[in-house]
Amino acid sequence: MTSVDLEQVSRWFGNVVAVNDVTMHLGPGVTGLLGPNGAGKSTLIHMMAGFLAPSAGTATLDGRPLHRDPEIYREIGLVPEREEMYDAISGWDFVLANAKLHKLADPRAAARQAIGTVEMAEAQDRDIRTYSKGMKQRIKMATAIVHEPRVLLLDEPFNGMDPRQRLHLMELLHELGDQGRTILFSSHILEEVEQIAQRIEVMVAGRHAASGDFREIRRLMTQRPHQYTIRSSDDRALASAVIAEPSTSGVELVSDATGGSVVQVQATDFAAFVHALPRVASRNGIRLLEVRPADESLESVFAYLVAR
């Protein structure tokens, strides 16, 4: 039962704090690391891989410090987000070289198995420079699993993959997780994470914002206050009527760029509000011209989780 543990981990670069006081436990199975770009996911993964030392706190693998311990690489496989490959060699040579670096008993057999697992046998003799983004992702995955590590760290592994490739990698991660391996993969897409991960860890602006299965994370996101900008045939009447609804916590009538007005509403109960709004408008003889969510970006959703 292999585990990776972060205890009050922080990492800063000069005056920039990339990761701030994160405590996290990773055990067997598949865990998704979710957050917008720039949230600190890659920095966190690099500390888990032993490449970066925490500026504060501890990062351990089964109780052993991860940084400056070459032996941990027998236990860890890494797929970095950036292309860290030699373009002038073939995929076969790249995976074989990694097998030899791990001093495997039969490096050629291990390389063949890893390449077959990621379905790259037909392209293994081509130079990596000729590969598509998705193919490069798969050959990186082969190098990460060639020594059958107990821990897999994958940084945005689905980038550049077509639907078939994504489905195959999802199935592979499920299979490896079921074998008892400890797997962490990062993504900024909730739908991508919830299809694979048994547990989700959310990072925002370097901080650990939330933790749980995808149902808990979905619940946190849908329960947050939602803001809407609404144009109607009678904005003043609509504002007066909507403020009386229990699903709203605030209403403001503001001028828009055209010189007209819009109604800005903050809804505390998303599901109740989207059902109540048409009824309120109909009851008061008001036509709804536009209903637009004002804060539906990933950044705003994750910022709400941080504020909790």
Automatic annotation (TrEMBL):
SMART domains in alphabetical order: AAA
Record field: transmembrane: none
Organism superkingdom: Bacteria
GO MF: ATP binding; ATP hydrolysis activity
The ABC transporter domain, residue ranges: 4-230
SUPFAM superfamilies xrefs: P-loop containing nucleoside triphosphate hydrolases
Keyword set, alphabetical order: ATP-binding, Nucleotide-binding, Transport
Pfam families documented for this protein: ABC_tran (PF00005)
Family: Belongs to the ABC transporter superfamily.
Record's protein name: Efflux ABC transporter, ATP-binding protein
Source organism: uncultured Nocardioidaceae bacterium
